[in-house]
Structures are given as C-alpha cells and as structure tokens.
Amino acid sequence: DVLIECGTFLGGSALYFASIMDLMNKGRVLTIDIEDKPNKPKHKRIEYFLGSSTSPKIVQAIKSRIKPGEKVMLVLDSDHK
Questions:
Q1: Residue 25 — left, alpha, or beta (φ > 0 → left; ψ -120 to 50 → alpha)?
Q2: What is the pLDDT of residues 62-73, one digit of tens each?
Q3: Looking at the chain, which runs of residues are DSSP E strands?
Q4: How far is residue 38's CA from residue 20's CA, in Å, rounded to a whole number?
Q5: Which residue in 72, 79, 8, 58 sits closest to 16, CA to CA?
Q6: Helix, strand, coil % (nearest 5) of the chain?
Q7: Fewer CB in 10 Å around end: N or C, the chain?
Q8: Nearest in space to 58 (alpha carbons), one of 48, 68, 67, 73
Q9: Tens digits of per-residue pLDDT, 6-21?
C-alpha cells in the first residue's frame, strides 16, 4: 500500500516504484531526502519530503499519511558509507 523511501536523490527509484504501482492499480510512494534536487519526476503516486528520515518532524509527517491496516515497505537508500 505504501512504500517509504529514505534517500530520494533525483527521484528515479521513486518513479520506478510508482510505475510498478500503476500496473497494480494501487499504492503510493513517500520519499525522503535531506537535499532538494531540482527536476524530480512528478507522479500522482509520489509525495516528496525534505528533511532527515530520523527527524521527529519527518517521522510524524510520514506516520500521519499511513492509514490503519495499510501494508508498508521501507527502502533504506540514504547512507552509502
């Protein structure tokens, strides 16, 4: 139902996930990054968040968009150390 992506970068993965969700006719992507890169893809299933994925403000914003009973998948792609 919901895919949370930590590490948007240019938005390519978010667009890929949203396109797969189009084929399934359900789901949405909530994607987070600390940097706001220009020209990220626009798609009705993608919502972008600017900030740290561990900040209380972002965590609350994400939590508020998940409805009870929805299945959630988390993709951690933000720290490449």
A1: left
A2: 999 999 999 999
A3: 2-6, 28-33, 46-50, 72-76
A4: 23
A5: 8
A6: 25, 25, 45
A7: C
A8: 48
A9: 999 999 999 999 999 9
